Structures are given as structure tokens and as C-alpha cells.
Amino acid sequence: MFTDILLYSARKSLKDVSEDTRLVEHIFRQVIKRESLQDELYCQLVKQLTNNKKRSNEDRCWELLWLCAGCFPCSQPLRFHVTSFLLHKRRSPLARDCLLRLERTVQLGNRRSPPHPLELHTVQKKSGSWGQIVILPDKSTVAIAVESSSRGGDLCLDVANKLGLKTTGGISLYCRVADKVVSIPYGDFYFDFLCSIRPLAEWLSSEVSSNWREHAEYDLLFRRKVWTDVTVGEDSVADMRMHFFQELESFLSGHHKCSKSEAVQLAAYLYRVRFGQAGFELHDDKKTAEVLKDLIPRDLLQIEPPEHWKQDIVATFNRHAGLNRDDAKLAFLRHVSTWPTFGSAFFHIERHDYRKYPEKLMAAVNRRGLMFMDQNSKNTIVSLAFDEVETSGDTRHLWVTGNGLENTWQLTTSAASQIDDLVKAYQDFREKESSLTNKSVLV
Q1: Nearest to 422, CA basis, from 350, 364, 382, 380
Q2: Which of 97, 331, 377, 383 has the fewest CB atoms within 10 Å around its CB?
Q3: Element holding 141 (H helix, E strand)
């Protein structure tokens, strides 16, 4: 550890990001594993910062102390001396930040992973927080500040406040890395979570250029996860910027069971959302087929010629004269909210061994429970309420136990861990609501 501190402090160039990251990783991983070394690290850094005549070395040691204060506190007896040292060094640019970070870490608890490379980048650039872009379901973005102490729930609240949402209940942040999308638990430190994502961790440990931070291969998404208490019309911001676009995605994917007449009605609403009062696009035969892809579910698109779809949609569109775009979004949501699969997250089941069920199954998780559907007919085969189902999953296999099932089901799907996480999120949400209800009754 001492050797790594000396190596890091002696480095003068910030161009070799990977070597700085490696040294920081090595220093902190061993200290996090062995709590007895945490006081030792504080002592070594304070010693290096006392009467250090090399300014560059001193600056680099301040960086390490800044990272240290955001990961774990020193013991109570040592904290008095470290605090006194930081107050004495208050003229140093990072001293005040170190003191504040130490106090926050004492209050919020230890991190479980070494500092993330983005934290190292932040302190090297003398910035107190990392600017993170969050993508909303409507494709717009919100900028938030992420600190070492930021948890998933804190960031959700920040985004919700910026949007003016009435509540954050049931909403989650997701990290998307390539084709993998994982929900960030409310209680997890954000940077700890990033370190726990295996594909991202593998990418970060590879050789990358010095400007990798500007091209980080992950996205942060803000979406509704649990739909238990959603009533269309109660929160207009959530409806317009989140619920509509999430349900639009499911509708066009063809996951809901939808009749042709319903598809026409909803397509007319979607056409108004996209083009407003003007109906000229569907009168252009060259554009009709392309426009229909954004109006009609994928599985229904081929049952009628484009000309027939156009005639029906235009006729329905004309009957909705007077609706504006937001009215049309709300009308669309109100209609799909009557479906049993409203608010569902859908997952394809790649393989199962139950011959009495259709070969192609799809799982849907929504406020009603865990449902298994025929991928072709969209008919529900099995429906399990959350109070009668147990799930567990790994990267490829999902095990389901519940009333109505003869045995534990073993299913093969690349979304096994996502299904398990979502089922447990609904169960936790119901348990919290029940607890709050019981408390109010007792009062």
C-alpha cells in the first residue's frame, strides 16, 4: 500500500489514465477488504501531506485523501486528529471537501467498492461532482450532479424534482450497457453499482484512450418500474413524459392483446400526437407504409393492406377533431390502462419443458402479478399474484414457484435476473404500502 501511494504521488502526467486507475484500484481494494488497514491509509496520507516540499506530490496525496474520505471513515479515536489536520490545512483547495466528505461518510456508511474511475477523474479535474446525463422515456435528457455519496434513491429524487413529478414511488434509474439494462437499487451507492456491473467493469479495465470519459459506453435511464399506484390523469408530467412513451413502446412491439378496432382507435390518437391537426402524411401513398410502423402494433401490421389501415385511421382521426397532442396522449393511456397487461414489462421465454403449454411463451410482470402468455395469441396461460409466487434467477435460468403450478418451473431466458428483480420490486412495494396502511390504522 505504501509503495502504491508513493508511485501514485510521484506521477506527474495525467495522460495515462489506466495506470492511475490501476494504482487507485490496488490501494483501495486491499483496504476495503481489510478494515484494519483503513486507519493505516489515513495515517500514511496525513504523514505524506505534512511538510511535503514537493507541490506536485502533495497535490496527488490530497487526491487520494479526497477519495479515501468518500469511501470509508477512520476510527473514532483517529477521526479527531484527522479533523484537526484538515482544519489546520483549510487553505488547501481540497481540505474543506475532504472534511465534508468524511462527515458524510460517517453518516451514510462505507462504500463496498474502490473509487470508480469517474471519481478519480473528478478529483483530478478539481471538481466536486460528476455531471451525469439522464435519458427520459420521451428521449429528452436531464442533467444531474453525482457525488461519491449519491445513492440510487437520491438521484431518482433529483430527477423527479427537476421534472416536477408528484412522487418517486415506483420509479427507478436504469444503467444500460450495450444490450444490458439493469435497475439501480435505491439504497446502493451509484458508483458502487457501476463497479458491480460486470460488462461495464470489464470495459473500464480494458485499454482505452485518454478521452474515454466523453464517450462512456453506458446510459442512465429514468423510467417507471412499478405501476401499482398509477392512475392515468393524476400526474400529468409523469403521463406526458414517461407513461405514454413507455406504453407506446409496448404497444408498437405487439406485446398487448389488441383487436383491429382498438388498433385503429389508438393509431388515430398516435397520429395526432405525432402530426397534430394536420392529416396530410397518410394521404401521401409513398409515406403511408413508413408512417404506419409508428402507429400499428408490429404483429397486426400485416393483417390488412396499408390502404385499408389508412382509410380506417383517417376516418377515426377526423372524428377526434379538436383534440390536441396532450389530449391524444391521455386518451391513448386511458384506453390501454383498461387492459390487464397495462404497465407490463414483457420478456421472451426462450425455452421451457412443459408440453401442455405453447412452445413460445412470454412473461409479463405488472401490478396484477407475474403472467405467462402465448407469444402468438397473447392469451394468458398462467397468472400468479405477487402474494402467491416466489422467483429466483441467474443470468440464464428463472425458477418460479406458485399456486397453480404443479412443480417449480425452470425457464430459460436471458432476462431471468430482470424478471426476478422486477417481481421482488413489486412485492417490496406492496409490503411497504401494507406497512404504511397498518401504521395509519393503528394511529
Answers
A1: 364
A2: 377
A3: strand 141-146
Bridge-partner residues for 393, per DSSP? 398
Q: Are 316 and 264 in contact (CB under 8 A)?
A: yes
In the structure grid, which three cell numbers stand for residue 52, read together?
Answer: 511535503
Give the Cα separation of 124 and 17 in Å (integer): 11
CB atoms within 10 A of CB 439: 9
- Confidence (pTM): 0.88
Sheet with 180-183: strands ordered across? 141-146, 130-135, 219-224, 171-177, 180-183
Side by side, which strands form the sheet with 369-374?
345-349, 361-366, 369-374, 380-384
Give me the residue label for grid cell 392529416.
279
* Nearest Cα residue to 73 out of 104, 95, 102, 41: 102
Cross-strand partners of 366: 369
Q: Average model confidence (pLDDT) for the chain?
A: 89
Residue pair 148/115 in contact by the 8 Å Cβ criterion: yes
106: its cell numbers: 460517517
pLDDT of residue 208: 41
pLDDT at 125: 87
Q: Using an 8 Å Cβ cutoff, are 27 and 65 in contact?
A: no
Torsion of CA 398, 402, 405, 411, to 10 degrees: 0
Q: Which candidate, 163, 156, 160, places its Cα nearest to that of 185?
A: 156
pLDDT per residue over 232-289, tens digit each?
Answer: 999 999 999 999 999 999 999 999 999 999 999 999 999 999 988 766 556 666 778 8
**Total residues belonging to the chain:** 443
Residue (of 302, 337, 287, 296) closest to 316 by Cα position = 296
pLDDT at 24: 94
- 183: β partners: 174
